[in-house]
Write a structure and sequence with these properties.
This protein has one helix at about 480, and strands at about 1-5, 15-20, 20-25, 30-35, 35-40, 50-55, 70-80, 80-90, 95-105, 115, 120-130, 135-140, 150-160, 165-175, 185-190, 195-200, 210-215, 225, 230, 245-250, 260-265, 280-285, 290-295, 305, 320, 335, 345, 350-355, 370-375, 380-385, 395-405, 405-415, 420-425, 430-435, 440-450, 455-460, 465-475, 490-495, 505-515. It has one helix and 39 strands. It folds into two domains: about 1-305, Tachylectin-2, Chain A, CATH 2.115.10.20; about 320-515, Jelly Rolls. The two termini are about 25 Å apart. The chain is globular. The mean pLDDT is about 95. A hairpin with a 6-residue loop joins β36 (about 455-460) and β37. The longest helix has 4 residues, at about 480. It is an all-beta fold and about 525 residues long.
Length: about 525
């Protein structure tokens, strides 16, 4: 058996492709840089990140972008000896729209973007037909829609030499249900000579759903499956352990099995999901020309029998990052595109140095923040930081981030003496939850979460922890409270809060691990 989700934490909008015996998967990243993590698997269950598709500032301009804008819904495909990722950049300050990048090696380097003209809408996908033609498939708002969220799916041919769309767009779908909203995540597959359009509708929250249609011609007409939606959890109630199932992509194994990757959420502590939308895996069986998703139950289960593939687990990784490598590990991200290197791993080997800069976490900027996803309902995160604030404006420490207006900052500040301070920002207003004086030098900071109860600790000696604040309500880190599309991040942060500074904070290590209930 394997356990769902296969990627825990904020890994939404998964797309998958197979090349021989290897599987590759990408997910959305919104305002975070680098963009689009790419994972490799040999058995569909164990995944290892091998890099990011967009890891150079020249590829990805996220300057000033609002929270939960940025990169939406990538699709990964392989043809002609190349890997293709097609994606949308939403609300970019200089450039927005749909683009393609390519690579011969999925670990990179990936090309600069090929921007696609006359490709309105979001969630683009590609089909490489067996006759050598390539097709673009995307969604767009209906020009004279009958209701809010009335969207349509269209196709256009793609000229691979010019990397531009050609011919006229053909609308092929506008939803399975009457009044269906936000048709998205369209993928077209050719199975046994027929074209199948898999798409989602209902919005990417509780009423999400997966539907399918088929045609003898790529441009239609398409007939909907009378069993639509072929997957949804919207009828199972707000207290069901997995909700919001949708945004699927299909893959066939080399042994003939079919599987679907999709997103869903796991609420806890009420209808709150701090981990955001995660990646799940479900089996698919074909009957009478239609796919049956999760046969026998029609639901995303938390456990399934393993795929008929040789198990291929990857070597386990340490829970601790000692910052010994010359570059940051793949799990670390920045907010928006970094235009200068405010972090340093070489000046003091074995330490991550963060420069204090004027940018704040509460602004749509690129602050001195290095973070990773919260991936577990019960977790512990800790760090060792050496920092001496030079005035009352400077701070450094740990943060738990949902967006600019919803986060916790557990930071060292300067009052009459150094103080460790827990600041809650919610609805754009700030509140000091707790603070206590500390001695200058090296500090150890820790946060532990048991569901929505977060506790914050400080120590001046290793493992001699003092509680600063316990039982802090973590629900502000959830999308139903904060809005948007992302889950919570945990990170290291330093700021001079609008002032120039030459100061820096030195982080010796960062530790993140899942906690068992009762730990």
């Amino acid at each position: 058996m394997f356990q769902n989700p296969i990627l825990s934490g904020c890994y939404p909008d998964p797309s998958i492709c197979r090349v021989g015996e290897d599987y590759y998967l990408v997910t959305s990243t919104f305002e975070y840089f680098p963009g689009l993590p790419i994972f490799h698997s040999r058995d569909l269950v164990h995944w290892r990140q091998i890099g990011h598709v967009l890891d150079r500032p020249s590829q990805l301009d996220l300057d000033g972008i609002r929270p939960s804008a940025g990169l939406y819904a990538p699709t990964i495909r392989h043809a002609n000896g190349l890997f293709y990722v097609i994606n949308t950049l939403v609300d970019g300050r200089t450039t927005s729209g749909n683009f393609i990048v390519t690579a011969t090696d999925p670990a990179g380097p990936w090309s600069e973007p090929y921007w696609l003209d006359a490709s309105p809408g979001i969630d683009p996908s590609l089909l490489f037909d067996d006759n050598g033609r390539a097709w673009y498939c995307g969604t767009n708002l209906v020009e004279e829609g009958h209701y809010r969220g009335h969207t349509e799916v269209y196709v256009r041919e793609l000229d691979l030499k010019q990397m531009q769309l050609t011919g006229e767009p053909t609308v092929i779908w506008d939803g399975a249900l009457k009044g269906a909203i936000w048709s998205e995540a369209p993928h077209i597959y050719k199975v046994d000579g027929r074209y199948y359009l898999l798409t989602a509708e209902g919005g990417t929250a509780h009423h999400h759903a997966v539907v399918i249609a088929r045609s003898d011609h790529i441009t239609g007409p398409y007939e909907g499956n009378p069993g639509n939606p072929i997957l949804t959890h919207r009828h199972l109630g707000l207290d069901y352990p997995v909700v919001g199932a949708g945004h699927g992509d299909l893959v066939q194994t080399q042994n003939g099995e079919w599987w679907m990757v999709l997103l869903a959420m796991r609420p806890y502590g009420g209808y709150f999901y701090n981990l955001g939308r995660e990646t799940f895996l479900v089996p698919v069986r074909w009957e009478e020309g239609w796919p049956i998703v999760s046969p026998g139950t029609g639901r995303v289960e938390t456990a399934y029998p393993l795929p008929n593939l040789l198990p291929h687990p990857w070597p386990s990784r340490s829970t601790r990052d000692d910052f010994d490598a010359p570059t940051l590990a793949d799990e670390w991200n920045f907010l928006r595109t970094p235009r200068d290197e405010f972090w340093d791993l070489r000046q003091h080997p074995g330490h991550l140095l963060l420069q204090l800069r004027p940018e704040r976490l509460s602004e749509w900027v690129n602050p001195s923040f290095v973070g990773r996803r919260q991936q577990h309902i019960h977790f512990r995160a800790a760090t060792a930081v050496t920092f001496t604030p030079q005035n009352e404006h400077e701070c450094a420490g740990l943060v738990l981030l949902q967006n600019d207006n919803y986060h916790f900052r557990f930071v060292i500040i300067q009052a009459d003496v150094p103080v460790i301070c827990l600041i809650k920002r919610a609805h754009g207003a700030e509140e000091v939850i707790a603070q206590r004086p500390i001695q200058p030098g090296t500090f150890f900071l820790k946060v532990e979460a048991q569901e929505q109860d977060y506790s914050f600790y400080v120590a001046s000696e290793p493992d001699i922890w003092e509680l600063v604040a316990g039982g802090v309500d973590g629900r502000i880190l959830s999308t139903p409270v904060a809005g948007g599309f992302v889950g919570a991040w945990i990170g290291l942060y330093a700021s001079s809060n609008g002032r120039d500074s030459s100061n820096y904070a030195s982080f010796d290590w960062f530790d993140y691990e899942e906690l068992k209930i009762g730990d």
